[in-house]
Protein backbone atom coordinates (compact mmCIF):
# COMPACT_ATOMS: atom_id res chain seq x y z
CA UNK A 1 0.00 0.00 0.00
CA UNK A 2 1.36 3.43 -0.91
CA UNK A 3 1.69 6.28 1.58
CA UNK A 4 -1.11 8.11 -0.21
CA UNK A 5 -3.39 5.06 0.09
CA UNK A 6 -2.66 4.85 3.83
CA UNK A 7 -3.46 8.55 4.26
CA UNK A 8 -6.71 8.22 2.31
CA UNK A 9 -7.75 5.19 4.38
CA UNK A 10 -6.92 7.00 7.61
CA UNK A 11 -8.87 10.10 6.59
CA UNK A 12 -11.87 8.10 5.39
CA UNK A 13 -13.13 7.83 8.98
CA UNK A 14 -14.81 11.09 10.10
CA UNK A 15 -13.66 10.81 13.72
CA UNK A 16 -10.04 10.57 12.60
CA UNK A 17 -10.47 13.76 10.59
CA UNK A 18 -11.86 15.44 13.70
CA UNK A 19 -8.91 14.21 15.77
CA UNK A 20 -6.47 15.47 13.15
CA UNK A 21 -8.17 18.86 13.18
CA UNK A 22 -7.78 19.09 16.96
CA UNK A 23 -4.14 18.06 16.73
CA UNK A 24 -3.45 20.74 14.12
CA UNK A 25 -3.94 23.34 16.82
CA UNK A 26 -1.68 21.94 19.53
CA UNK A 27 0.01 18.89 20.99
CA UNK A 28 -2.65 17.02 22.97
CA UNK A 29 -2.55 14.07 25.40
CA UNK A 30 -4.78 11.07 24.67
CA UNK A 31 -6.91 11.69 27.77
CA UNK A 32 -7.82 15.21 26.67
CA UNK A 33 -8.64 13.97 23.17
CA UNK A 34 -10.88 11.26 24.61
CA UNK A 35 -12.84 13.93 26.51
CA UNK A 36 -13.78 15.51 23.17
CA UNK A 37 -15.55 12.39 21.87
CA UNK A 38 -18.28 10.05 23.02
CA UNK A 39 -16.06 6.99 22.70
CA UNK A 40 -13.63 5.27 25.02
CA UNK A 41 -10.04 6.31 25.48
CA UNK A 42 -9.09 2.96 23.94
CA UNK A 43 -11.08 3.79 20.78
CA UNK A 44 -9.32 7.17 20.52
CA UNK A 45 -5.97 5.40 20.94
CA UNK A 46 -6.86 3.05 18.08
CA UNK A 47 -7.72 6.01 15.84
CA UNK A 48 -4.44 7.66 16.81
CA UNK A 49 -2.54 4.49 15.95
CA UNK A 50 -4.04 4.51 12.43
CA UNK A 51 -3.19 8.20 12.00
CA UNK A 52 0.34 7.57 13.28
CA UNK A 53 0.83 4.57 10.96
CA UNK A 54 -0.26 6.76 8.03
CA UNK A 55 2.35 9.37 9.03
CA UNK A 56 -0.24 12.03 9.91
CA UNK A 57 0.60 12.41 13.60
CA UNK A 58 3.62 12.03 15.84
CA UNK A 59 3.68 10.75 19.40
CA UNK A 60 5.82 11.97 22.27
CA UNK A 61 5.91 10.05 25.54
CA UNK A 62 6.46 11.83 28.83
CA UNK A 63 6.36 9.45 31.77
CA UNK A 64 3.15 7.47 31.35
CA UNK A 65 1.44 10.03 29.12
CA UNK A 66 1.40 10.08 25.33
CA UNK A 67 1.11 13.40 23.55
CA UNK A 68 0.12 13.64 19.90
CA UNK A 69 0.66 16.37 17.35
CA UNK A 70 -0.32 16.59 13.70
CA UNK A 71 2.38 16.11 11.09
CA UNK A 72 1.44 18.34 8.12
CA UNK A 73 4.19 16.86 5.95
CA UNK A 74 2.29 13.57 6.21
CA UNK A 75 -0.20 15.05 3.75
CA UNK A 76 2.45 15.85 1.11
CA UNK A 77 1.84 12.73 -1.00
CA UNK A 78 -1.93 13.22 -0.96
CA UNK A 79 -1.50 16.91 -1.78
CA UNK A 80 0.75 16.05 -4.76
CA UNK A 81 -1.75 13.45 -5.99
CA UNK A 82 -4.64 15.93 -5.79
CA UNK A 83 -2.62 18.70 -7.45
CA UNK A 84 -1.67 16.39 -10.32
CA UNK A 85 -5.22 15.10 -10.73
CA UNK A 86 -6.72 18.58 -10.55
CA UNK A 87 -4.22 19.99 -13.06
CA UNK A 88 -4.94 17.15 -15.47
CA UNK A 89 -8.70 17.65 -15.12
CA UNK A 90 -8.38 21.39 -15.70
CA UNK A 91 -6.22 20.78 -18.79
CA UNK A 92 -8.83 18.40 -20.21
CA UNK A 93 -11.62 20.90 -19.51
CA UNK A 94 -9.61 23.69 -21.17
CA UNK A 95 -9.05 21.59 -24.29
CA UNK A 96 -12.76 20.70 -24.52
CA UNK A 97 -13.75 24.36 -24.29
CA UNK A 98 -11.15 25.33 -26.90
CA UNK A 99 -12.56 22.67 -29.27
CA UNK A 100 -16.09 23.90 -28.61
CA UNK A 101 -15.25 27.54 -29.38
CA UNK A 102 -13.16 26.58 -32.39
CA UNK A 103 -9.64 27.33 -31.15
CA UNK A 104 -8.62 23.67 -31.43
CA UNK A 105 -9.57 20.89 -33.83
CA UNK A 106 -11.15 17.74 -32.33
CA UNK A 107 -7.79 15.98 -32.67
CA UNK A 108 -6.26 18.63 -30.39
CA UNK A 109 -4.30 20.44 -33.08
CA UNK A 110 -4.57 24.19 -33.44
CA UNK A 111 -7.17 25.37 -35.87
CA UNK A 112 -5.76 27.02 -38.98
CA UNK A 113 -8.20 29.78 -39.86
CA UNK A 114 -6.21 30.59 -43.04
CA UNK A 115 -7.37 27.33 -44.61
CA UNK A 116 -11.03 28.36 -44.27
CA UNK A 117 -10.54 31.96 -45.48
Which regions are unreliable across 5 or more consecutive residues at pLDDT < 50? none
**Helix/strand/pairing class, anyone?**
mainly alpha
The side-by-side strand order for the widest beta sheet comes to: 1-3-2
What is the total domain count? 2
The CATH H-level homologous superfamily of the largest domain: Winged helix-like DNA-binding domain superfamily/Winged helix DNA-binding domain
Topology pattern, helix = H, strand = E: HHEHHEEH
Terminal Cα separation, in Å?
57 Å
Percentage of residues assigned to helices: 55-70%
Quote the CATH topology of the largest domain. Answer: Arc Repressor Mutant, subunit A
Description of the structure:
The chain has 2 domains: 3-74, Arc Repressor Mutant, subunit A (Orthogonal Bundle), CATH 1.10.10; 75-110. The chain is 56% helix and 12% strand. The protein has helices at 3-11, 14-25, 30-35, 41-53, 76-100; strands at 28-29, 57-62, 65-70. It is rod-shaped and about 75 Å long.
